[in-house]
Specification:
Chain lengths: 232, 116
């Protein structure tokens, strides 16, 4: 009898803890409620501004700059051609995204027909290496700003974890492979995949996408922050 | 009757397996663009150019649009090679394929003096 009472009490406590955890986690949000402006006045053309690199990896900026256009294009938007726009921005002294002002945004609208700009900030690009396990962690913040009034239309943060370890059963070979992989890996495909997955999961579909106007009920974390795991 | 049922089964199986074609095909263009930017040598640029041509050909075969910006990227490569007439053709192709690019394509054609 005592055992049964004890088990009932434990079960009740466990249930209460579970309910508490569930109650604390904010419920996911629909894309439409998280980003209403993307549905009220959806942008069509997006200018990808040169990414802001706050990490210590000098290559990170190019990885993002060269892969974002595909990620945005796949979601049904018209990304302004990166090679041509970066050339113009360089020549006009606007290559530093930190210096872009609302007046400059208005000029993008007036002269190039750009509806929104994508600002990307690379917060973290960390490689770690431990015997036969290597990994890369990328944290990036994204924001779409309207060129009409500099309003934030969409914003999202992603932390991507890429596993770089070797699965070779021979310990010495695995050790060597992991060290080589971590040191000389071409990280572009990882960055490209992370950007495509981010936009696919969190950016409402644009005018040219088959799901345009139909994804308002799709949910994202209320924190507007997601973790993506890529294993090789 | 048996043959007919068999045929229906095969048709149903085919319908279930049919995957809708992609609405855009990018091929290897992003990665080869990165390599061309990074290395800036003739081989990488030639590889990037070939990857764009592959997308143009495959998109035509699949009867889908060439992804936004890629005709313009090709025009920029031709410009770098001083092929002004060719560049103009590809700026115009971008403008025709994606009407929202019109203002920027006109600006680029003016800027690089390839407009009539």
């Amino acid at each position: 009898m005592g055992k049964i009472v004890k088990r009932t009490i434990i079960a009740t406590i466990l249930l209460a803890v579970l309910l508490l955890i569930t109650a604390c986690a904010p419920p996911p949000m629909s894309l439409k409620s998280a980003f209403p402006k993307m549905y009220e006045n959806p942008p069509t053309t997006i200018l990808i501004l040169p990414p802001i690199n706050k990490s210590t990896a000098s290559d990170a900026k190019e990885y993002f700059a060269c892969s974002l256009s595909e990620a945005i294009g796949r979601k049904g938007y018209y990304p302004m051609p990166v090679e041509a726009t970066f050339g113009v921005l360089r020549d006009e002294g606007l290559y530093d995204t930190e210096n872009i002002t609302p007046a400059v945004l208005a000029n993008f609208k007036q002269y190039f027909g750009v509806d929104a700009v994508l600002i990307t900030s690379i917060e973290e690009w960390e490689k770690s290496y431990a015997i036969v396990a290597g990994s890369l962690t990328i944290t990036a913040k994204f924001a779409l700003l309207s060129t009409a009034n500099a309003d934030t239309l969409w914003d999202f943060t992603t932390k991507t974890k890429v596993s770089l370890g070797s699965d070779n059963e021979n310990f010495l070979v695995a050790l060597l492979e992991t060290a080589v992989k971590t040191a000389v890996e071409d990280y572009f495909p990882n960055c490209q995949k992370a950007n495509i997955m981010t936009m696919d999961a969190a950016l409402p579909s644009g005018k040219h996408h088959p799901a345009y106007g139909q994804d308002g009920d799709k949910t994202i974390p209320a924190s507007k922050h997601a973790v993506i795991e890529i294993s090789k | 009757m048996k043959n007919c049922l068999g045929l229906i089964a095969v048709l149903l199986l085919m319908a279930a397996c049919a995957v809708p074609p992609p609405y855009l095909y990018y091929g290897d263009t992003s990665h080869s663009y990165y390599k061309a930017v990074k290395k800036q040598d003739a081989a990488s640029v030639a590889h990037y150019k070939a990857s764009l041509e592959d997308v143009f050909a495959k998109s035509t075969r699949l009867r889908i649009s060439v992804p936004p910006g890629l005709y313009c990227d090709y025009a920029m490569l031709l410009l770098a090679n001083n092929e002004l007439a060719g560049a103009k053709v590809y700026f115009q192709k971008e403008k025709d394929a994606w009407s929202e690019s019109a203002a920027f394509m006109d600006f680029l054609m003016q800027r690089y003096s390839v407009k009539d």
